[in-house]
Amino acid sequence: MTLTTPSMLRIIPENVSEAIGISALFLLVALGVGVMIFANMRMQNFAFLEEAFELEFGVRGFVEKEIENYRPIHTRQLSFGVALIIVSVLPIIIINLLFPSFAEEHIGYVVGVFLAVVSMAIYMLISTGIYWGSLNTLLNHRQSEDEESEVVDRIAGIYWPIVTAIFFGYSLSQRIGDAVGSFGRLQL
């Protein structure tokens, strides 16, 4: 999306912009999948932490103190990350309402800012969640999985792939429709 503005301003050709964008999308998806597989393989070394174990007194006290010290930081990062995600759409809305001609010409850059803000928020949420979860795992503070959370997990496992497939299908059909329309105009 960020490449649409240079394409609209004729800085780079539209087909080059689309090729770069689609290539970047698939490269980032491949990178993300690779990172998840790599992280999962590395985490197998710590599978023993899922079973009950006892920490020595000094270590347990250190982890409990770390949890108490980190609690306000975790709360702040969690709150700020969620708030950032909620307000991340405001630049798009405000620029579209206050400066419609600017938004029309430079919407790609505005969407780029939106995605950068969402990325920062997600980084904050993931990093604080991993550290907080690690501390709680060391103290065996696990939340019991009840039937409701299992149902939610099953539904989410079906829901998100379907939503993603619909999004990609819709986006692809729009691109194909645009390409066919452009081809039809060239024939005339």
In short:
Keywords: Membrane, Transmembrane, Transmembrane helix. By secondary structure, the protein is mainly α.
Largest beta-sheet characterization: none
- As for the number of domains, it is 3
The end-to-end distance, rounded to whole angstroms, is 29 Å
What are the secondary-structure elements, in order, as H or E? HHHHHH
What ranges have pLDDT less than 50 throughout 5 or more consecutive residues?
none
Radius of gyration: 23 Å
Helical segment tally? Answer: 6
Estimate the mean pLDDT confidence. Answer: 77
Strand content: under 5%
Shape: elongated
- Helicity level, as a percent range? over 70%
Structural category is mainly alpha
Transmembrane segments: 20-39, 80-103, 109-132
Keywords: Membrane, Transmembrane, Transmembrane helix
What does this structure look like?
This protein has three domains: 1-51; 57-142; 148-188. The chain is 82% helix and 0% strand. It contains six helices and no strands. The chain has helices spanning 4-8, 14-43, 57-87, 90-98, 100-138, 147-187. The longest helix is centred in the C-terminal third of the chain and has 41 residues, at 147-187. The radius of gyration is 23 Å and the shape is elongated. The model has no long low-confidence stretch (mean pLDDT 77).
